[in-house]
């Protein structure tokens, strides 16, 4: 009797298991399908990550070439499509600067995000909405490890860095040269003479008509341009005249003059001319405004100063001057190193970018002068010309940043500017992934 009841119970259990199996079958199939789909989704996620990586690097190349945002996005889309991006199922977004991550808000980087709605197969039994995969990549300049003390900002000029002095030598100790010009053959043109430099880079081509010796082994063509390190430098507020020339003429020196600031700023209205035979000085550190005139030092004159920044501007919007150091003069000037003025730290001369571009505004350092200059000479819209006999002082820091820079005689320049902190001009890299 007991065995009969047991057989009856087992028959009933078999029926219950069958019912339970039937009820659970869709769930089991769904989870098995989910496992299969996850494998497929993983492959799709890798595909769009490859596409995002390629798109970010391509976008960075165009961004560094100065192209518009539409060109940057088009290049990103083209390279993404070559690497698996599907315009039918995916969306692509290009952000410059990035909107997330460690480079958020930094315009030197490009972020690409690709979203793809994934296809469900068996897993749709347990998923109401198909999942979305996201791939993100950020590109910037990588491998840049050389620091320039000469930067030509022009994006297209021939001879943007130029040397033309038979028998002359330019020595740059610890210093590199970079030209942003994309000119195909003569972005940098060493026509003759000897150019001794740590390294020379150019966004375009380099002509080696003279002798170039480098510590980096060879010149570097087709490099990514360097951003203007002083692009955000502003003109400080000022008013009135502390030193005023007669009429519209420059303030003219007298032997033994010394110039001081009040509240850290002094204003020369009409310019400053240091005459032959005069020895003058900037007595205390600070900012010296040259308003509507030149900073001119004539042959036989001497001017000295420490911890100064000299700004050439025009309060009325016209009449801005430039820098003229004539042959036979002696100039010994050291840039502002005051922590209270961090914006101008290391800046010796700044010609206001609002003054425009003109050959009359080019800075000239004539041969035969002794210019012991420490700090940055910054002319964002105009050119700098050295015609011989110019050198840095024992502190070993001179940075030249202008549209073009030319050397037509001997010069000895050193780049040991760590004393001033920021604004390094690093080059030698190319677009690459950073995230």
Brief write-up:
With 435 residues, the chain is an alpha/beta fold.
Give a verbal description of the structure.
With 435 residues, the chain is α/β, with parallel strands linked by helices. It folds into two domains: 10-142, no CATH class; 146-429, no CATH class. 18% of the residues lie in helices and 37% in strands. The protein is built from two helices and 31 strands. Strands 4, 6, 8, 11, 13, 14, 16, 17, 19, 21, 22, 24, 27 and 30 form a 14-stranded mixed sheet that branches. Strands 5, 7, 9, 10, 12, 15, 18, 20, 23, 25, 26, 28 and 29 form a 13-stranded parallel sheet that branches. Strands 1-2-3-31 form a four-stranded antiparallel sheet, with helices on one face. Helix 1 (2-64) crosses helix 2. The radius of gyration is 33 Å and the shape is elongated. The termini are far apart. The relative contact order is 0.12. The mean pLDDT is 83.
Distance between the termini: 76 Å
How would a textbook summarize the main sheet?
14 strands, mixed
What structural class is derived from the secondary structure elements?
alpha/beta
Q: How much strand content do the residues show?
A: 35-45%
Q: Could you estimate the helical fraction of the residues in percent?
A: 10-25%
Please state the CA-atom Rg, rounded to the nearest Å.
33 Å
What is the overall pLDDT average? 83
- Count of structural domains: 2
Features of the shown structure:
435 residues, alpha/beta, 2 domains, 14-stranded mixed β-sheet, 13-stranded parallel β-sheet
């Amino acid at each position: 009797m007991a065995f009969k009841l047991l057989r009856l119970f087992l028959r009933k259990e078999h029926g219950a298991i069958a019912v339970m199996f039937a009820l659970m079958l869709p769930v089991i199939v769904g989870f098995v399908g989910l496992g299969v789909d996850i494998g497929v989704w993983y492959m799709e996620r890798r595909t769009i990550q490859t596409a995002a990586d390629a798109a970010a690097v391509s976008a960075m190349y165009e961004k560094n070439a100065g192209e518009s945002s539409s060109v940057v996005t088009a290049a990103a889309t083209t390279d993404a499509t070559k690497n698996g991006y599907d315009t039918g199922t995916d969306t692509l977004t290009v952000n410059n600067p990035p909107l997330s991550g460690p480079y958020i808000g930094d315009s030197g980087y490009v972020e690409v995000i690709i979203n793809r709605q994934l296809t469900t197969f068996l897993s749709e039994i347990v998923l109401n909405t198909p999942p979305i995969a996201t791939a993100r990549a950020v590109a910037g300049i990588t491998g840049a490890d050389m620091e320039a003390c000469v930067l030509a900002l022009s994006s297209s000029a021939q001879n943007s860095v130029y040397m033309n002095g038979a028998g002359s030598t330019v020595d740059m100790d610890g210093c590199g040269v970079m030209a942003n010009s994309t000119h195909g053959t003569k972005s940098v043109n060493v026509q003759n003479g000897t150019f001794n430099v740590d390294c020379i880079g150019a966004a375009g081509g380099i002509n080696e008509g003279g002798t170039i010796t480098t510590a980096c082994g060879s010149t570097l063509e087709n490099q990514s341009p360097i951003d203007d390190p002083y692009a955000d430098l502003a003109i400080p507020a000022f008013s009135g005249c502390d030193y005023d020339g007669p009429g519209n003429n420059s303030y003219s020196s007298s032997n033994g003059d010394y110039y001081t600031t009040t509240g850290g700023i002094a204003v020369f209205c009409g310019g400053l001319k240091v005459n032959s035979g005069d020895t003058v000085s900037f007595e205390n550190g600070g900012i010296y405004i040259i308003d509507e005139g030149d900073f001119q030092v004539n042959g036989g004159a001497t001017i000295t100063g420490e911890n100064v920044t000299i700004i050439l501007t025009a309060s009325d919007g016209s009449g801005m001057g430039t820098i003229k150091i004539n042959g036979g003069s002696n100039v010994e000037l050291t840039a502002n190193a005051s922590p209270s003025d961090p914006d101008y730290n290391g800046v010796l001369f700044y010609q206001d970018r609002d003054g425009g571009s003109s050959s009359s505004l080019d800075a000239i350092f004539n041969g035969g002068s002794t210019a012991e200059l420490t700090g940055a000479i910054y002319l964002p819209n105009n050119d700098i010309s050295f015609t011989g006999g110019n050198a840095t002082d024992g502190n070993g820091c001179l940075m030249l940043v202008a549209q073009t820079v030319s050397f037509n005689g001997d010069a000895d320049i050193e780049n040991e500017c760590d004393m001033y902190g920021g604004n390094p001009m690093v080059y030698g890299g190319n677009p690459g992934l950073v995230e």
